[in-house]
Amino acid sequence: NPIFVEDITRGEEKQPISLLNENGTSELPKFLYISKNTVYKNAHVNFSLARIGDENCCLNCSGNCLSAPANCACTSETRGDFAYTAAGLLDEKFLRESIAIIRRKNDKKHLFYCENCPLENRLVNGNRNHKRKRSVKPCKGHLMRKFIKECWAKCGCSLNCGNRVVQRGITVKLQVFQASEGKGWGVRTLEALEKGTFVCEYVGEVVTNQELDERNEEFSGDRHTYPVLLDADWASERFLKDEEALCLDATKFGNVARFINHRCYDANLIEIPVEIETPDHHYYHVAFFTTRKVEVNEELNWDYGIDFSDETHPIKAFDCKCGSFFCSMKSQS
User: Fold this and answer.
1) What's the sign of the alpha-carbon dihedral 10, 13, 15, 17?
2) Cα-based angle 114, 145, 186 (whole degrees, multiple of 5)
3) Which of 202, 246, 269, 296 has its CA 20 to 30 A from that of 208?
4) Which residues of 282-309 are buried (b: 16+ CB within 10 A; e: fewer)?
5) How far is residue 250's CA from residue 242's CA, in Å, rounded to a whole number?
6) pLDDT tens column, 129-144
7) Whole-angstrom distance, CA of residue 306 vs CA of residue 288
């Protein structure tokens, strides 16, 4: 029998998110819904107004920054232009350039190579009670993405400012459902979405790269969500300390984004790094926007950025069933 849950968020989101288990055979997911990222233990994330200098906010703005004649300080990340339109959508040019970077993710001009990569030099061969050895391998490259800087608490504009989109949370109608082709759970929209619409952000526990490795060792037999690495601007640092190489793990604590499936190349969502309450890029929000118009009941998907041939990743890559003509697994078969 079908199972219907009216709101999996327990009221955490302003917009309820339903779950439909159409044949009643799939096991309901076991996790706790959270609407905002939470630091697990050692991740170096400092939310402080004192850390945000005057050059990192628009103290002199008022009302809606998008309608102000003067340049807003919060457009520094986007070369003086706002990333959002007056309708609250992602700017067409910004979206087009962001999609181009994703689709050319193997182009070396979009990649940064660490001198001492936290991923490739992770601690291996041991456990917490034994001395570990480091595996020293060359960096495989990190995709440098375009950032959005939203206005925040230290800015002079109002809460209704058009440069405050992601921080307002989910406003579209979403549903978790059983996806086709053996993909497990998925997420679909219950309303038509315009191109450039903010859908949700990826929410989970903020963990360090080392903490993620330790979790994978301890719970090696358990099923994990695919972790999201916050590496979009590692180029600003020559070397990251362990507490600065951050990931988002939504296995035990997360939001609706943990159910969004992967699609190679032509996904209808794109992830955009969004800076809100911190002045640096060690920590940021991973926000999903539509890459095109999306129809009612259409499944949502995004490109996880997985190298399916990488056997050293801390989470084993799954067998891709995205169905895209450009599927990476097709090229390997």
Assistant:
1) negative
2) 110
3) 269
4) bbbbbbbbbbeebeeeebbbbbbbbebe
5) 20
6) 444 455 567 888 899 9
7) 17
Reference 73, options 58, 83, 60, 88; nearest CA is 58
**Residue 259 exposed, middle or buried by CB count within 10 Å (0-12, 13-18, 19+):** buried
**pTM of the full predicted structure?**
0.91
Closest Cα partner for 71 from 149, 137, 142? Answer: 149
The token duo for 327 is 């599927």
Among residues 315, 307, 159, 142, the alpha carbon closest in space to that of 227 is found at 315
Per CATH, the number for 3-302 is 2.170.270.10
R_g of the chain, CA atoms, integer Å: 20
**Residues listed for the chain:** 333
What is the pLDDT confidence band of residue 125, given thresholds at 50, 70 and 90?
Answer: very low
SS (H, E, C) 213-231: HHHHHHCCCCCCCCCEECC
**Distance between CA atoms of residues 201 and 270, nearest Å:** 11
